[in-house]
Amino acid sequence: MNKNYFSSGRVYIFSIFLLLFVLFFSCKTNPTNQNLDKTELRPSLKSIYPYVQTDQKGVLGKNGMVVTAHPLASQIGLEILKKGGNAFDAAIAVKFALAVAYPRAGNIAGGGFAILRFKNGESTALDFRETAPLSSTTTMYLDEDKKPLSHLSQEGHLSVGVPASVAGMVELFEKQGSKNLSWEELIKPSIKLAQNGIILTENEANKLNDYQEEFRKWNDEKNCVFIYKGNNTSKWTKGDTIIQKQLAETLTRIKNEKRAGFYKGKTAELLLKEINKGKGIITQKDLDDYKPVWRKPISQTISLANSDKKTAYTILSMPPPSSGGIALAQLMQGFTNYINQNRSPLNLKHNSATTLHILTELERRVYADRATYLGDPGFYDVPQKMLLDSSYNMERNSTISLFKKTPSDSIKEGKVNSIESMETTHFSITDKEGNAISLTTTLNGNYGSKVMVSGAGFFLNNEMDDFSIKAGFPNQFGLVGAEANKIEANKRMLSSMTPTIIEKVNPKTGKNELFMVLGTPGGSTIITTVFQVILNVTVFEMDIQDAINAKRVHHQWLPDEVYYENLDDAVITKLKKLGHKLKKVGQLGKTEAILVLPNGDFVGAADYLRGDDTALGY
Ligand code: DON
Description:
The chain is of the alpha+beta class. It has two domains: 59-114 and 123-292 and 423-485, no CATH class; 295-422 and 501-604, Serum Albumin, Chain A, Domain 1 (Orthogonal Bundle), CATH 1.10.246. The strands form four sheets. Strands 1-18-17-13-12-9-8 form a seven-stranded antiparallel β-sheet. Strands 7-4-3-11-10-2-19 form a seven-stranded antiparallel β-sheet. It has a three-stranded mixed β-sheet with strand order 14-15-16. Helix 5 (71-82) packs antiparallel against helix 6 (87-101), helix 9 (183-196) runs antiparallel to helix 12 (245-257) and helix 16 crosses helix 19 (390-397). The radius of gyration is 24 Å and the shape is globular. The protein starts with a helix and ends with a strand. Residues 1-9, 11-38 and 410-416 have low confidence and may be disordered. GO terms for molecular function: glutathione hydrolase activity; leukotriene C4 gamma-glutamyl transferase activity.
C-alpha cells in the first residue's frame, strides 16, 4: 500500500468532495426522494390548512397521535386529546368531524368497525355495521326473470341499510369514553364546523364536481348544499366555503339527546319521510331495533425470521361480519410461511415479480374463501376455526406454483366499477395512557346512496350492495358471494373493512406491546392494502411512512386481474410471463397509521401522496 498516497490531505479532501457529489446526485436522481421533497409537500393544501402534515417521514408525538383523511378532523381529534380526552373520546369527535368535513365517506348515517386496545393490553372490537331493514328479502334486487337490478342496490332509497354510526358512537362513549369530557364537548366542534363552514380542498372540490349529476338526480336543489347553485358550467373550487346549516341542526339534536337525537324525534321523522319519498323500506321499528355489537377481535400471532432475528407479532383485526380480520390472518399465515421457509433461496424483495406472484396467489385463494364462507355470523355459521387453521391454509397454498399462475375461471368474472375511488375512511388514534383505536367507517359508495335527507343535511348509505344480491353476481367492487352473504331481514352485510392493531412481543419480557395501528378505505382492496403495509414494516423493514407511500398491488380472485399502481417494466414483463393479466389503476387504498417506537413515542403516518390525509401529534 502506498502510504504517501493515502495519507495525503489533498486526497482526503478530494475523497470527501467525491462522496458528497455522489450522494447529492444519487438523491437527485432517485424518484422517491424527488417525490418527497419537503418544500414541495402539498403547498396548495397547506395554504388552506397551515397545520397539515408536511413531515415527509411521519409526524412524531410523545403524548398522542391522530391520523385521519382530513386536516380538520385530525385537528379536532388532537384538541380532544390535549383537553384530557382519551383515544376513544377523540375517535367520537373525529367521526362526527368527518361527517361534516369529508362527506363522501364521513357520515352519521353509515356504519363501521373499530378495534380498541386498552392501556392494560386487553382489546375488543366494536361492530356498528348497518343491517338489512326488517322487510328486506333475498330477492329484493331481482326482476321477475331473476335478473339482478344492481342500480337499485347501488343508488337511491332502496339501497339504504339501517344507519348505525350514531348508535355506534353513543355505545363507544358510554362504555369506553373517559368521561373527562362530556358527550356535548365531543360533538360541539363538529357543530361549529357545520355552522361556520368547511373550506374545500382541491380534492374535495373535484370530488363534489364529479357527482353533481347524481346529486341532482336524487335531491332537491334547495336542500342539498353540495349542489352547485350557479349555472351548469359552474364548479366548486379549492377555497370555497360550504356551510351546512341543516346538518348543524341535526348534530345539535344528537348532542342534546344522544341516540334519540337521531333515531327518534325530528331527525327520525325527516329520515323516514325521505325514505318514503323513494322506494325505501326502512321503518321506525328498524331505527328502534338497531344495536351495535361488541365482538372478540381475530387474533393471529406470527413469528417472522428476519435479518437473522425472530420477531413475533400479534395482529388484532375485525371479525365477521367483516371479512377483513380472517382474510388478513390467512394472508399473513401464507406469506409468513414463504418468508420463514424460503426467503433466502427465493430472495423475496419488496415488489419484485416473485413477491408479487406469491401475494397474488395467496390473495386469489383467500378471496375465493371470502366469497363462499363469510357472512354475518348471526345468520350463517362462518367456519372461522377452519379458515384460521394453519394446516388448512398450508394445504390450500400448497398448490401455488412459482412458475405459473393458477387461473380463477370457475365463476363468471366480476365487473369492477370503482376500484380507484376512495369512498370509505379510516382513522387511527393513540393517547398518552396507551389506549389505541383503529376505526374504519363508510357510506359504501362515494356519498353513499347519493340521497341526502331533506331538512336534515346528511347523506344516506348504500350499504345494501355489500350483500350478494344474487349468487355469483358481482357487487360494485367486483366481489362475488352466495349463501353466506345473501340478503335476510336484520342481517349485517359482509364487509372488507379491516381496522387493525398490531402488537409486538417484547423478547425480554415476553409481553405483547402496542406496535402499530392502521387501516384504509378501498372496498375490496382494503384487505390487501392493510396486508402490504404490514409486510412493508415487518418483513421489508421500511419506516412507517415509506411503507405507506410504497406502490401497491391487488388481486381478489375474480376478476382474475392484478391491479397495480405502478411497477417497474421488468417486473410487469415477468408477471405477464407467469400468466398474470395486469391492469394499472390510479390508486389502491388511503392508509392512516401510527407506529409506536421502542421508547413509547408515536410516529403518525398519513397517506399524503394519495390524499389530503394528515397526522397530527403532540
Ligand atoms: O364494507 C365494505 O367492505 C365496503 N362497504 C367498503 C366500501 C369502501 O371501502 C369504499 N371505498 N373505497
